[in-house]
Amino acid sequence: MKQTFHIFLKDARQCWPYLAAVLGITIALALPGERNATGISMMNNPLDLVWVLLPVTWWVAIVRVIHSEGPVGDRQFWITRPYSWRSLIVAKVLFCFVFLLIPLLVHDMVILTAAGFAPLQMIPGLLMRYAALSAAMILPALVFAALTRNTREFVLACLAVALAGLVSGMIVGPTPPATASRALLEASRPGVLASIDNWWNTVVFGGGGVVLVLWQYARRQTSVARAIIVSAFLCSIGFSAWISRAVPPAVWEKAAFSDARNPELTVAFDRGRPGLAFRGNFNVPGKVLISVPIRFSGRHPDLFSYTLAAASIDGGQGNRLNASWNRDAWISGSSTEGISIDFGLTEKDFQRFGATPVKVRAVFGVTIYELEQDKPVILRSAAARLNNVPGLGIISMPDDVNNRVGLLAPLKSPGKKFIYTILNDDRNVLGSGQWAGAFPPSPDYLHISPVISITPGFQGSQPIGRIPKDVVLELTVARPVRIVRRDLAIDGIRLADYAQR
User: Fold this and answer.
1) Interior CA angle at 419 toward 174 and 273, to 5°?
2) Please, which residues bridge with residue 148 across strands?
3) With contact defined as beta carbons under 8 Å apart, do 308 and 174 qualify?
4) Over the range 364-385, which residues count as b (16 or more CB within 10 Å of their CB) and which as e?
5) How far apart are CA 360 and CA 378, in angstroms?
6) What pLDDT does residue 250 have?
7) Sign of the alpha-carbon dihedral angle for 382, 387, 389, 390
8) Using an 8 Å Cβ cutoff, are 428 and 379 in contact?
9) Distance CA 263, CA 125 (A)
10) What is the dihedral of CA 119, 122, 125, 131, to 10 degrees?
C-alpha cells in the first residue's frame, strides 16, 4: 500500500499540467453560463466546445500517467526496481478515480442541484453513470495506453480503430433498431432473450478490457495482447455482418407465426387510400419511390409505436426482392396523415415488379404502452414554471424566456412516453406534442452533463412562440410494457399504381 501511494503522489506531481486542464474544464462546465442552470447548452456558441475538450483531456492525462511507467517493452526502469505490478496498476486506477471521477461527481452535484433535483437521492443512478463512463471513456484509454509505447503509437492506434469502425459500418450497413429486432426474436423464438440483458456488451467488452490490462501488466506480452484486441474487433465486425447479411428478412419470415399478445392491434393494407403524396424529400437518381398505404387499428394511436423490421416483394417463380432496412424500404407518415411502406426501387427492379401483381410482405416491431394514471396531470404555468413529474423529470412550462414545453431528465433519458396538450382558460387547445424514450431501455448514462434536455415535438393552431404565458398543460404519461410482432401480407398488388413520380 505504501508503494501504491508513493507512485500515486509521484504521478500527481508529474502530471499537474494535465490535471489543471481537467479541473479547469470541469469547473467551466459547471458555471451558469455553460449549464444554463437548466441543463446542457450544446454548441450554441464557440465556448461550448469545452464539452468536447473534457473527454480529450481525460485521455491525454491517462496516456501520460500510463506511459510514465508503461508495460510495453523490457527496458523500462521500473522493472529493475522492487516495483510490484499490482501496486503500479492500482496507483494508475486510483489516479483516474481521484482526478477524473471525483471532480465529475462534484460537477454533477452542482448541475443537478441547480436544475432542481436532489442528487443525494440519486446515488444508485450516479454510481451506474460513473460505471458506464468508466467503461466507455476511461477503460479504452487504459487499454490503448497499456499496449502502446508512446503518444505517437497511441494516436495511430486510435486512428486505426476509428478507420476500422468506419469500414465496418460500410460493410455491415443499416440494421433495424432494437425495437424491431427484439420483436422479431421474441415473437419468433419466445424466451430467446431471457438470459440477455442490456448490459451484456458492457460486461463482455468491459470485463475483457480489464482482464487484458491486468494480464499486460503482469506478463508484458504486448504482441499477444495486441493480437487479442485485433481478433476480438474482427470477430465483432464479422458477427455484425453475418447478422445483417446472412440472416435476411426471408429467415425472419420463415420463423413467423401469429403473435397472440395484444390481439386487438392489427395492421392491414389500406386499399381505399392512395399512397402518401410525394413531399419532395425523395430525390435519388435512378430510383422510383413506391408508397404502399397501410393502417394500424384496434388501439389508440398514443398507446403504441411501430417500426418496420423487414419487407420483401415477391413476383413468383423465384423472382423476389428482400429490401434492406432503411435503405430500400422504410415506413413514413403518422396515424393522423396516414402511414405507408415506402420502397426505393431501382429502375431495373421497378421493371421487374412494377407492372404485374406481386405479393408484398412486411414485419413490424410494435411497442405497446399503458397509461400510468387514470387522469392527466394538470400543470399550470402561472403557478410554477418548473414541475417535477415522478418518473420523467422536470417539465418546463412556456414563459417569456423559454416559450416552449421542455423536459429536464436526471442522469439519463426516461424510458417512458408523455403526451401533452396546451389549453387556455377557455379550454381551447393551443397545441400538443409527445415524446417517447427508447424501449428496450439502454444504459444511457454516457453524457457529460447529468441533466438531459429534451424538447418534444409540437403541433398547434399557432406558433409556439405566440402561446400566452398563462396556460394549462395536461400531461399524460404512459409506460412501455412489451414489444409485439405484426406481420402484413398484401397479395395481388400492382406497385405501379402506387409509384410517386
Assistant:
1) 65
2) none
3) no
4) bbbbbbebbeeeebebebeeeb
5) 45
6) 47
7) negative
8) no
9) 37
10) 50
Q: What pLDDT, on a 0 to 100 scale, did the predictor assign at position 332?
A: 83
Element (H, E) at 5: helix 2-14
Q: Note the pLDDT of residue 61.
A: 94
CA distances from 340 to 181, 187, 323, 349 (A): 20, 23, 15, 19
Contact in structure between 342 and 330 (CB atoms under 8 Å):
yes
Is the N-terminal amide bond of 293 cis, ω within 30° of 0?
Answer: no
What's the CA gap between 237 and 192, in Å, rounded?
A: 22
Short-list 67, 87, 72, 70, CA closest to 9: 87
Rg (CA), the chain: 27
Q: Please provide residue 378's backbone torsions phi and psi, each rounded to the nearest 5 degrees.
A: -100, 120
End-to-end CA distance of the chain: 74
C-alpha cell at 26: 470541469
CB atoms within 10 A of CB 85: 17
Strands 472-493, 417-423: pairing kind: antiparallel
Along the chain (501 residues), what's the average pLDDT of each consecutive run of 10 residues?
Answer: 87 91 88 50 52 88 91 72 83 94 92 88 90 88 92 91 78 62 56 45 72 87 87 75 54 55 89 59 73 90 86 84 76 78 88 88 88 77 61 70 71 85 77 79 71 75 55 84 86 87 62
Q: How do strand 386-389 and strand 393-396 relate by DSSP bridges?
A: antiparallel
Report the pLDDT value the prediction gives residue 109, as an integer from 0 to 100: 92
Closest C-alpha among 401, 385, 373, 382 to residue 475: 373
The alpha carbon of residue 105 and the mean position of all alpha carbons in its chain are separated, in whole angstroms, by 23
Neighbours of 462 (CB within 10 A): 10
Grid cell locating 287: 430510383
Give CA–CA dist 312/154, Å, rounded: 46
Q: Which residues pair with 266 in a beta bridge?
A: 297
Burial class (CB in 10 A: 0-12, 13-18, 19+), 134: middle
- Cα 383 to Cα 387: distance, rounded to the nearest angstrom: 9
DSSP 397: P
Cell 468508466 belongs to residue? 134
Instruction: HSE, CB side, 13 Å, CA atoms: give it for residue 332.
Output: 18
H or E segment at 363? strand 358-371
- Calpha distance 122→481 (Å, rounded): 24
The amino acid that residue 257 corresponds to is F
